[in-house]
């Protein structure tokens, strides 16, 4: 990207984002006030120490030069006093930097906590439409820019502003004429640096977006390394990476090029100002020009010129710092906007009021209990304050359901089906026919466009999503295992489960034998998504996880499609145990695994075109017959 790259929009600071960031400081109000006080003290020390130069030279050093027997005691006292003043400034700087680090890390922790908590409330659709690498970038790059702004940029900018104001009045105190020269020079300097800073600012914003894009691509490539190597896609993957990396490199280069030349330009302009002031001050002293300060008229002395030159150096430095830190602040605000955009994403809505509770029968009447009785019920709060209970059985019915992921692109058309307790319902059909979509609707990962879905006679829109999903178990084709022991991964299905219940679930899933052969058995720590296990072993752990939840309804989505026939037989035995006395929805490409289903439904382009038992569908010699003969 060249320097003359078109269509780079000018970016203004988002005041809403700034206010939102500052709101996090309320928790640290007292400590932040302490930081501000220390910054003011530090800035005051730099001004006072410069003004001391005039007194040091004019009142102590110059008189000593003409004394035959100089007395250095007064000079020693003033030097000690200056040392104490400098020590106060050093301590103030140390304190505000140390405290600001604590404040910044506390704010970042709170932001990360809120961001992660909010992510847990987002609908599945959000994750389907955003790359994982870009999401990770919020926690790494965007958070890091915020850290730099809070710990470095904000204190430096505030310190610089206080210093600029204090030094300006100190210069006026010494000489109005020389201060006017400084103001004119600074005006010219700010015109120059504002153009450079604006260029840098625009590219820093583009840099943040490029980092997120590149991280998303890297995450995809890392996850897909096997596919890349199988299809010899390395060269193409590298070419795409190079394009994205070049884009990031160009934006970062342009941003840092302008940012890095800012300080040298400011320093050189500062040297020019220094020379101009020295010449002007010397000329005023030689010509005997009356000097005007805030205290009145006086003469131009060597001490005054030295003190003013020191103040001019102090005056230039914070202006350069502000100019440079503005870029860091804008970059951080761009990161903050990305973070807040994620935090402002609409949470998954839940208007349900029916909850799942433990229940028992007393004198033939169902009541709620805190004990584990093996009986669950749906709790219906009524408008009159009364409560009714419906036993959880696991009956699922669809009535004329239509659904589309995107508007005007329907995926399901007029789906009507029923699954009674204990039945095994199988869905077959080509990829994209809508099989997995049906199971997503049962879980309410997505809401239907039209029709009704009833669970135990209750409209699922009235059931709280967490309670609905607690009553469902899922075994997916893609198994996700988490860092932790085998026992922890099984317990993921029911965090209240005891070790004995987890082991019993593993036995039910036919996973106990291979687990005990692991180095530490159930205490073996898994990492890297269980990379040390075979696909079949990982799938058996997934089945055990579902078994420990003991749900009345099970959804098996292509659970055996990615494993070999021999391993499938082992996994199938585990699933057969799991499916007993449950309502089961099965999605399978291998028709041999669903022949014993109570009902098989054939889907095509989002419609149920055939339904019936295995024998019935074969006798009809329709689509199922063709699929079965094709696999036979």
Write a structural description:
This protein has helices at residues 15-23, 29-65, 73-119, 124-128, 132-174, 176-223, 225-230, 234-287, 302-343, 435-442, 465-470, 486-491, 499-508, 512-516, 535-549, 565-579, 614-620, 623-631, and strands spanning 291-293, 296-298, 355-362, 365-368, 376-381, 387-391, 396-406, 409-419, 424-429, 450-455, 458-459, 472-476, 484-485, 525-526, 553-557, 583-587, 599-604, 607-612. Mean pLDDT is 81; it is low at 1-11. Among the domains are: 15-343, ABC transporter transmembrane region fold, CATH 1.20.1560.10; 355-391, no CATH class; 482-549, no CATH class. The chain contains 18 helices and 18 strands. With 632 residues, the protein is α+β, with helices and mostly antiparallel strands. A six-stranded mixed beta sheet has the order 12-15-16-9-17-18, with helices on both faces. It has a four-stranded antiparallel beta sheet with strand order 4-3-5-6. A four-stranded antiparallel beta sheet has the order 8-7-10-11, with helices on one face. Helix 3 runs antiparallel to helix 5 (132-174). The longest helix has 54 residues, at 234-287.
Concise description?
The protein is an alpha+beta fold and 632 residues long. The protein has helices at 15-23, 29-65, 73-119, 124-128, 132-174, 176-223, 225-230, 234-287, 302-343, 435-442, 465-470, 486-491, 499-508, 512-516, 535-549, 565-579, 614-620, 623-631; strands at 291-293, 296-298, 355-362, 365-368, 376-381, 387-391, 396-406, 409-419, 424-429, 450-455, 458-459, 472-476, 484-485, 525-526, 553-557, 583-587, 599-604, 607-612.
